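Continuing the batch. This is chain 6 of the set; chains 1 through 5 are on the previous pages. Same settings as before, nothing changed between runs. Recording input and output for traceability.
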Amino acid sequence: MHPLRALVVGLLLACLTLFVQPDAARAYPFWAQQVAPETPREATGKLVCANCHLAQKPVQVEAPQAVFPDTVFKTTVKVPYEKGALELAADGSQVPLQVGAVLMLPEGFHLAPEDRIPEDMKEEMEGIYYSTYNDGSDNVILVGPLLGDQHQELVFPVLSPNPAEDSAVNFGKYAVHVGGNRGRGQIYPTGDKSNNGAWTADVAGEITAVDHNGDGSHVVHIATDAETVVDAVIPAGLEVIVAPGETVAAGAALTDDPNQGGFGQHDTEIVLQSPWRILGMLGFFTLVLATQIFFVLKKRQVERVQAAGQL
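Output for chain 6:
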């Protein structure tokens, strides 16, 4: 196995272990594979990452408007947020945010091989590790989790295809889909809520008691009109904002919302441009320019002949 690929696999396994037994905040772009193993983009255009990362935050992408075949170019995904921001880990402690991104390129586009990447681009890629969404989708690239304060700009080195070598690729305009995330999600892939979001009441009723457990978690007892008591178990790290004697409606917040992160997506386009089309366009412009110049010269000549005939 290639050393870089082995490193990426090792990092993913380590992150998976941390998620199953979490003790810090993490960003998990590759968890979308469990929900949608074929592609992270649903038929509606939504990326599946938004199913767990419910908060919306902006994401930006910088890519060339057009590229030539068999050319290495840079695509930059920006995941901005206020540096130094902290969020809750699964154990309730405050930890820095981490970031991740998914880049969906057109068919035929893929990560550039290391020997084709310019040295200045390699410097911008330092500390960033890449993996493909699955074995059959080398045009869908994942990055993360990475420490957000150091990687708010994620650089992807991309190699464009050559239609002369691949008959399935044609010159033209293609769509590019980008998703960027900072911080943990509010829902786990299993559907369970994480502690990185406001905890709400399942039923309406009166708060009868709030128990504080030694591990930092809480239990809020809610007495309903049906004279039953429903217990809301609140995980560690969340601050309870209700007190005994208060009345709450179903869906009302029982805690604050500690989330500092969120997910965003952006769609753009890129043109796979033929060099012959550019040369043809330049030739056409040159021909038009020359025609206009000759037309002006001929008009001046006619004017001089007419003026000489009137003398």
